[in-house]
């Protein structure tokens, strides 16, 4: 008998508890509760890792300009180079390649999805990840490896922020924060879904007299230690507050706990923290799997398992595929006449109750203090928030000097000159670390910090005023020779973002190659093709991760209905596997259906 089937599980009581916990957290200001890091908060964005080097502004022309030097830019650049497009310029505000892995060097950072599917171009670059879940320095080094392997450093512009993109007919004009004004026949945009850090919108952040920083700009000069795991020896006499308990905090709290004199972890909503089971890669085993085409096989297998497709083999076997495996087993046990949608949804809910009961039981088994254990339990369905996996996070609350400050869903009240106030009590600290996440769900042009001015002077922000509109999540009508590299309106595979990017990169490389080979100066999605794609997207079940029944968070726009805009933040109606199969067929058919190529 499974946990969920046991008579002791009162499903209605659980549903009620989930609703109560959600209702405590709903607030009218939604996303507006957070502070943008502009003006007096801009110092939170400074690059602590690489000194700025002076250079003359660029006024030349390139074939492809790519905005963003993270995985999106790297995989697209790689596919373009493989297709013989040499003249690729990647622009990034960071001091090197890496994107999220450039900025996020907090202690304990590691990938949350198995390295073999998460780290792109492993086969092409010949790298064997050293662990099932590689740590951040190895991933950053892999980004550099891709950059070197494909010669992407030669033309790259770092510490450079694109501020304007304007279509001049046949080419784009790109202006940057460094005074560049160069042109490119094609532009591609891969700014990342989570790249603008945000702070809680509470009073007094400015008044704090101690030290503070955001986790994505970790200040090792203050804490001591380094991203590779050297102990943070400058914290041994420090009282430290960390605000937030999302995926970032789950990874860095275990490193902070033994290092600080006192650590206060301020929690608004607990994360669900399941088993990680990380382990070093056995080179002998790796040699047996790394046969030609291995990474594609692993990617497809992970996506199939994670999205519940019928498949007998689970190569990755981890927490991401576990829930889908359970749901599938329940559905397969149904007699054919009970194969109905309500029964499938019930199978999903039962598996979820079972899983979450196990995760809550794990808290009780690990955390010694009963009140702390109770407060660390997550009361929502597993996919309502980013699921977390860690083998040392819960244990950190047993370390003397580590205190969970649960705010009952209300968040911290304010910051003062001396510390942090929660539940009316002031906690005096020397340092406040904001693990408060990144902007999600705000408009693209706000997060990008530039707007695209396309054909006939139309702005992307106007074209998308009623929500995102694309063909395949890549092309936008009215914006010729511009490509998006991101998951939405495409596969929308949230558990493994790089898989989405690699496919987009391959699609763009084929399209650019075709244009260059035939002397086309322009390529653009037709209005009809874009309309048809949007209609197809709207025919699906809607945003799967944004149920209003969930506790608020960035998965569901902080619990606020986004209306039509929200309904467009979806993937292919038949799921990620269907999109990948479709786009592969679209690429290989060479018919470029939906695109118009022109010579001007
Ligand atoms: P999140 O947005 O997930 O977490 C922010 C945290 O800050 C939440 O716990 C939030 O509480 C809390 N918070 C916000 N305002 C307040 C307040 N006023 N008082 C107290 N707490 C507050 O950010 P993360 O940086 O943790 O993670 C962002 C995403 O980055 C992840 O979801 C994941 O997609 C990605 N990530 C991936 C990793 C990987 O692959 N290895 C590792 C880390 C992150 P509440 O939940 O109530 O809103």
From TrEMBL:
Flavoprotein recorded as keyword: yes
InterPro entries noted in UniProt:
FAD-binding_Monooxygenases, FAD/NAD-bd_sf
Q: Which UniProt keywords apply?
A: FAD, Flavoprotein, Monooxygenase, NADP, Oxidoreductase
Reported cofactor(s): FAD
Q: Which Pfam families match?
A: Pyr_redox_3
Q: Which GO terms describe its molecular function?
A: oxidoreductase activity, acting on paired donors, with incorporation or reduction of molecular oxygen, NAD(P)H as one donor, and incorporation of one atom of oxygen
Please give the family membership noted in the entry. Belongs to the FAD-binding monooxygenase family.
PANTHER family, alphabetized: BLR3857 PROTEIN, L-ORNITHINE N(5)-MONOOXYGENASE-RELATED
Q: What protein name is recorded for this chain?
A: Predicted flavoprotein CzcO associated with the cation diffusion facilitator CzcD
Q: Which organism is it from?
A: Nonomuraea solani
**Taxonomic lineage of this organism?**
Bacteria, Bacillati, Actinomycetota, Actinomycetes, Streptosporangiales
């Amino acid at each position: 008998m499974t946990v969920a089937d046991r008579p002791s599980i009162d499903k209605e009581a659980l549903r009620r508890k989930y609703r109560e916990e959600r209702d405590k957290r709903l607030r009218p200001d939604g996303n507006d509760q957070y502070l943008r890091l502009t003006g007096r908060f801009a110092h939170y964005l400074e690059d602590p890792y690489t000194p700025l080097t002076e250079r003359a502004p660029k006024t030349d022309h390139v074939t492809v300009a790519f905005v963003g030097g993270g995985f999106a830019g790297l995989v697209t650049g790689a596919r373009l180079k493989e297709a013989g497009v040499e003249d690729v310029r990647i622009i990034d505000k960071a001091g090197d390649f890496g994107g999220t892995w450039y900025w996020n060097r907090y202690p304990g950072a590691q990938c949350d999805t198995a390295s073999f599917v998460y780290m792109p171009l492993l086969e092409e670059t010949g790298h064997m990840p050293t662990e099932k879940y590689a740590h951040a320095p190895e991933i950053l080094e892999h980004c550099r490896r891709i950059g070197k392997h494909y010669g992407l450093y030669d033309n790259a512009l770092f510490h450079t922020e694109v501020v304007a993109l304007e279509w001049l007919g046949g080419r784009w004009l790109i202006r940057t924060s460094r005074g560049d004004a160069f042109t490119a026949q094609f532009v591609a945009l891969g700014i990342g879904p989570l790249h603008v850090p945000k702070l809680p919108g509470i009073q007094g952040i400015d008044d704090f007299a101690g030290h503070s920083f955001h986790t994505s700009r970790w200040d090792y000069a203050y804490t001591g230690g380094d991203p590779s795991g050297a102990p943070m020896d400058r914290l041994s006499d420090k009282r430290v507050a960390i605000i937030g308990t999302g995926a970032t905090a789950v990874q860095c709290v275990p490193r902070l706990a033994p290092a600080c004199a006192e650590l206060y972890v301020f929690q608004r909503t607990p994360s669900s923290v399941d088993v990680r089971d990380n382990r070093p890669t056995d080179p002998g085993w790796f040699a047996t799997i790394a046969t030609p085409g291995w990474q594609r096989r692993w990617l497809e297998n992970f996506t199939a398992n994670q999205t519940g497709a019928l498949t007998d083999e689970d190569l990755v076997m981890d927490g991401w595929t576990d829930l889908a495996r359970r749901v599938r087993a329940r559905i397969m046990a149904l007699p054919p006449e009970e194969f109905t949608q309500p029964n499938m949804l019930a199978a999903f809910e039962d598996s979820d109750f079972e899983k979450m009961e196990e995760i809550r039981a794990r808290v009780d088994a690990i955390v010694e203090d009963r009140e702390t254990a109770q407060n660390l339990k997550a009361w929502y369905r597993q996919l309502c928030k980013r699921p977390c996996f860690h083998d040392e996070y819960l244990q950190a609350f047993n370390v003397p000097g580590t205190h969970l400050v649960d705010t009952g869903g209300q968040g911290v009240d304010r910051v003062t000159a001396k510390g942090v106030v929660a539940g009316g009590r002031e906690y005096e600290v020397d340092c406040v670390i904001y693990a408060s996440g990144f902007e999600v769900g705000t408009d693209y042009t706000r997060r990008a910090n530039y707007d695209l001015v396309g054909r006939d002077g139309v702005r992307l922000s106007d074209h998308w005023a009623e929500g995102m509109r694309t063909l395949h999540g890549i092309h936008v009508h009215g914006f010729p020779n511009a490509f998006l590299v991101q998951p939405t309106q495409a596969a929308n595979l949230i558990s493994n973002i790089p898989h989405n990017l690699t496919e987009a990169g391959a699609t763009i490389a084929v399209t650019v190659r075709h244009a260059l080979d035939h002397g086309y100066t322009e390529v653009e999605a037709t209005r009809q093709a874009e309309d048809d794609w949007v209609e197809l997207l709207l025919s699906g079940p809607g945003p799967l991760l944004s149920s209003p029944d969930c506790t608020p968070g960035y998965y569901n726009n902080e619990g606020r209905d986004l209306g039509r805009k929200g309904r467009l933040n979806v993937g292919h109606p038949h799921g990620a596997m269907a999109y990948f199969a479709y786009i592969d067929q679209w690429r290989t058919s060479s018919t470029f259906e939906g695109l118009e190529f022109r010579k001007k």
